[in-house]
Amino acid sequence: MPSVTIHTTQNVSIDCETARIGTRIGAWLIDAVVLLVAYLVVLYTAEQFGSGFNREVALRLGPIFWAVLYFFVSEWLGSGRTVGKRLLHLRVIRLDGEELTPADHLTRALFLLPDVLFTAGTLALLFITTGGRSQRLGDIVARTVVIQDDPAADLSLADVLTIRNREQHRARYPAVQRLAEADMLTVQECLLRYRRYRNAAHREAVQLAGARLAGLLGIDPEEAAADAEQFLETLLLDYIVLTR
């Protein structure tokens, strides 16, 4: 499955699985239904109670306006997720690991016009299927990408990217600073693989990594053994806070 590497401002690289084309189309269809229902409700209300309502103008320009408005507002307020993306576990993120801005959301929404509305989706499909990062034109311009957002993972991409300072996360194991960045990237990869493929082999790898790191850092082995997954997550977050 295609993936993209996000290089965060904390110099941590995170591999994310890009959204499948079928899932993106499914999310779009769900959003289209939500958008159509909302538009019909507004249109009916305007016809019944609006003064000076021009039905012809509303039918020609209304769908375009509402489509742009819907995707802009829903992705902005939904932290990169519309109704369809939320239901199918997709999320829009920035390639530089920073938080999405209103300008990013607006750019993506406006480029829906050439990507989808004016070309019946063919331009978006062309860019997504031929590009290395599965980006449509709006994603390329806004420097964003749509990823699979695994709801089962406790340590989500958002958890890592929103750590900015010591006030947001209190480090528990200061000794983690003795480790090299390559060590923590291995910890990160170990966690991500276990949460994507929860089988006995990956569970054992997490437990062995926890025990090994506890020994290196002089931490009570019982802390790592009690919940190796949580222990490695804490070490990773501590390292980011203490070294960035």
UniProtKB/TrEMBL annotation:
Per UniProt, subcellular location reads as:
Membrane
Q: Which InterPro entries match?
A: RDD
RDD domain: which residues? Answer: 19-142
Q: What are the entry keywords?
A: Membrane, Transmembrane, Transmembrane helix
Q: Provide GO CC annotations from the record.
A: membrane
Does this entry carry the keyword Membrane? yes
Locate the transmembrane regions by residue number. 25-45, 57-77, 109-128
Q: What is its main location?
A: membrane
The topology of this chain with respect to the membrane is: Multi-pass membrane protein
Protein name as annotated: RDD family protein
Organism, by scientific name, is Neolewinella litorea
